[in-house]
Specification:
mainly beta, 341 residues, 26-stranded mixed sheet, 4% helix, 2 domains, disordered N terminus, 26 strands
Length: 341
C-alpha cells in the first residue's frame, strides 16, 4: 500500500515542473487600409499606438515563474485574414491536476499600426493605453484600467464589469456599459454620450457632449456642458451640470440632488422629476415659464429674475422677467427647489 501511495505521489508531482518560462513574439504583419485589428488577451498591459506606418508591429513579452503543467501551453495565434489582423491569446491544457502556483512577472503587448485602422478588443483583466487611432474602437473587458487619448475615432464603444476609464482629446460618439468604476473625461467633444452604469462616478470637464443619455444606479454625475437633448436617470447619486443648452430635457431621480445652470432656448421643454432630493436651477440665459409641484419641501426663487403667476404652498407657477417661450416642469416629492440667476 505504501508503494502504491509513493507511486501516486511521484506521478502527481511529475505532472508539473517548476521553472521560469518566457514567451516572446516580435513580428511585422500586413493590414488593409481601414482594416480591423482583432485582439484577445487576458491580464496583459496593452499599448496600442496609431502611427504613419502602413503595416503592423506586434511585440509580446510574457515572463512567468512557478509550477507549470507539462501539458500546459501559452502562445499567440496571429493571422492575417481578409485585410484584418487577428492577434489571439491561446492557453492549452490546465493546471487543475496539481497543487501549485504561477506568477506572471511581466506580460506586455505593444502594437504599432496605421492611424486609420479599427479596433475590436476582448480582454479579461487587462490594462489598455490607446492613442492615435482614427477608426472605430470597440472594447470589451472584465476588469482593468482603460486610457484612450488623442484619437479621432467616429465611434467608441466600451463594455466592462469593473474598470476605470480615462478619455482625453477625443471627438467621438461614446457608448459605454459597465458595472463598477469611474469615468474621467477631459477636453473631449462627444456628439453622442450614451452611458449606463451601476456603481460609479462620471467626471466630464473641459469639453461638451451633444445628445446625452445617462442612467446610473449609484454614483455622481458631473457634466461641463450639454448642447443637445438630455435624458438623465439617477437612482442614488447627485448630478451637476455646469451649462445646459438642451432643447429637450428629461431628468428623473429617486435619491439625490440636481444642480443645473440652464440656457432656456426658444420652445425648449424641461421635465424634472425627483422623489427625494434638492433641485437647484441657475438661469444663465433665455426665458419662459416654470411650473413647480412640491409635496414636502420648500420652493424659493431667490432672485428678482422671476415673477410669480401662482403662489401656493405646494404649487408655484413662475415666469422669467426675460421674455421667452421655454417650458420647465418640476415635480418633487421630498426636497427643496431653489431658483437663482
Amino acid at each position: 500500500m505504501k508503494n502504491i501511495l509513493f507511486l501516486c505521489v511521484f506521478s502527481f508531482i511529475s505532472a508539473a515542473v517548476t521553472a521560469q518560462t518566457t514567451y516572446s513574439y516580435n513580428e511585422i504583419h500586413k493590414i488593409s487600409e481601414g482594416g480591423t485589428l482583432h485582439l484577445s488577451s487576458n491580464d496583459a498591459d496593452v499599448t496600442i499606438l496609431g502611427t504613419n506606418r502602413s503595416d503592423v508591429s506586434v511585440e509580446i513579452l510574457r515572463k512567468a515563474k512557478g509550477n507549470i503543467a507539462k501539458n500546459q501551453k501559452f502562445y499567440f495565434d496571429v493571422e492575417e485574414q481578409g485585410g484584418d489582423l487577428y492577434v489571439t491569446e491561446v492557453r492549452e491544457g490546465n493546471n487543475t491536476s496539481f497543487i501549485g502556483y504561477l506568477n506572471i512577472q511581466k506580460y506586455t503587448i505593444k502594437i504599432h499600426l496605421p492611424h486609420n485602422v479599427k479596433l475590436d478588443i476582448e480582454g479579461d483583466d487587462d490594462d489598455y493605453d490607446i492613442t492615435g487611432i482614427n477608426g472605430d474602437i470597440k472594447l470589451e473587458t472584465e476588469d482593468g484600467d482603460i486610457v484612450i487619448y488623442d484619437c479621432a475615432s467616429p465611434r467608441l464603444n466600451i463594455k466592462a464589469d469593473d474598470a476605470n476609464i480615462a478619455l482625453a482629446n477625443l471627438n467621438t460618439e461614446f457608448k459605454t456599459r459597465f458595472e463598477d468604476g469611474e469615468i474621467n473625461i477631459h477636453n473631449c467633444e462627444l456628439p453622442l454620450l450614451d452611458l449606463v452604469m451601476d456603481d460609479g462616478d462620471l467626471n466630464f470637464k473641459n469639453g461638451h457632449s451633444v445628445d446625452t443619455k445617462i442612467k446610473t444606479a449609484d454614483g455622481d454625475i458631473y457634466l461641463n456642458e450639454v448642447k443637445g437633448d438630455l435624458e438623465l436617470v439617477l437612482d442614488d447619486g447627485d448630478a451637476y451640470i455646469n451649462e445646459l443648452w438642451s432643447q429637450n430635457v428629461d431628468i428623473k431621480g429617486y435619491d439625490g440632488n440636481v444642480e443645473i445652470g440652464v440656457h432656456l432656448n426658444v420652445d425648449s421643454n424641461y421635465k424634472i422629476k425627483m422623489d427625494d432630493g434638492d433641485i437647484d436651477i441657475n438661469l444663465l440665459s433665455g426665458g419662459g415659464k416654470i411650473e413647480i409641484r412640491c409635496d414636502d419641501g420648500n420652493i424659493n426663487a431667490r432672485s428678482n429674475a422671476y415673477d410669480y403667476i401662482t403662489d401656493e404652498d405646494h404649487y408655484k407657477l413662475l415666469e422669467t422677467k426675460i421674455i421667452g417661450t421655454a417650458r420647465m416642469d418640476i415635480r418633487i416629492e421630498d426636497g427643496d427647489v431653489r431658483l437663482t440667476q
